[in-house]
Amino acid sequence: MSSLTRLIAIACCLLSVVSSASVSTPDVPDCLKTSKKNYMAIPNHLIRQMMFTDVVAAKGQNSDLKYSCEMEELAYDLVNESGPIDHVDPDNIVFSMGNGKLNLKTAVDLWQDRLKEMGEKKEFGCNFAIGSTHKVACIFKSRYTTNGAFEIFTYRLRHWTT
């Protein structure tokens, strides 16, 4: 088999793996389609699916962890500092920032120990900001948090004014 034929065969295999990976994460909503809020959702659904897959694998939690557009919006507020950062429970956040090229997989790899230590969670969402310094954050909702406490936290974050 010629090297060109071999290269084409490898490319076809990789495309089928990528296609099957996107099919294997049906629980990841497309926040661009479902959000009615004025925030910048992750612009490419494939990026969201890859973040979901990488975070779930790094966290090692096998039960019912879902991706949430609401949490993605809170993560957007965090990375863009458009809300009261001091109201975010640090036990439910992973955050990275740096200079140079943004690599989301590297950020998740750096969080691996922290993700495992934080205990079981119900849902999470991630977002990032790219500028002279890039920022990446994921915010988690605890499995055992009452909705009332979470709603108060969410209300404060969304209605914060300076």
UniProtKB/TrEMBL annotation:
Keyword Signal: yes
Keywords tagged on the record: Signal
Name of a matching Pfam family: ASPRs
Top-rank taxon, per record: Eukaryota
Signal peptide (UniProt feature, chain positions): 1-20
InterPro entries listed in its UniProt record: ASPR (IPR035109)
Protein name, per record: SCP domain-containing protein
Organism the protein comes from: Ancylostoma ceylanicum
Taxonomic lineage of the native organism: Eukaryota, Metazoa, Ecdysozoa, Nematoda, Chromadorea
Gene: Acey_s0020.g130
